[in-house]
Write a structure and sequence with these properties.
Elements (H helix, E strand, L loop, with lengths): L7 H5 L4 E3 L6 E5 L1 H7 L14 E3 L7 E5 L4 E3 L17 E3 L4 E2 H9 L5 H11 L5 H4 L7 H10 L1
Length: about 150
């Protein structure tokens, strides 16, 4: 299993949080590879890879990433729609295996509720996920998928 889909126990110890300069919510530390993959190309020249970067998951905050110098990267500087910040049904919940809110809802309504998680787990087991480079939060989506399914 890759680092991105480590169990919750493994993730807790890797921590590191700081407050978002825009909304004062705790951000989650992300690897620099995530920002290099998710930021728009014209923004990369402002990226300082020597600083620690964080992901802000607050829905009503426009900031996606920020660093220890309080430099922020808003949604307008991100290549993809961010699940935590965009409620459209077509936005991915799972970025690696193309599970949008719409697609998950369809499976749940048809009575195949565990299918998305089974599909993701199987691909994680086969070491096919790339959450660090596909998912703006820089970590596994299974928590988001599980929470979304339970909300239906």
């Amino acid at each position: 299993m890759t680092d991105c889909c480590a169990t919750n126990e493994q993730i807790v110890g890797s921590g590191g949080t700081e407050l978002c300069p825009s909304c004062d919510s705790k951000g989650k530390k992300v690897k620099i590879i995530t920002l290099k993959s998710i930021l728009k190309p014209n923004v990369l020249d402002t990226l300082n890879p020597d600083l620690t970067h964080y992901f802000c998951s607050t829905e009503d905050c426009d900031v996606v990433y920020f660093n220890t110098d309080k430099k922020t990267y808003p949604t307008s500087e991100i290549k993809v729609s961010v699940y935590q910040k965009n409620n459209l049904s077509t936005v991915p919940v799972c970025y690696c295996f193309d599970w949008s809110r719409e697609k998950i809802t369809k499976y749940v309504e048809e009575g195949i509720g565990s299918k998305p998680l089974e599909h993701i787990r199987q691909n994680v087991k086969e070491d096919r996920c790339g959450c660090e480079v596909n998912n703006p939060q820089g970590s596994c989506c299974m928590g988001n998928v599980t929470k979304f399914i339970k909300s239906l």
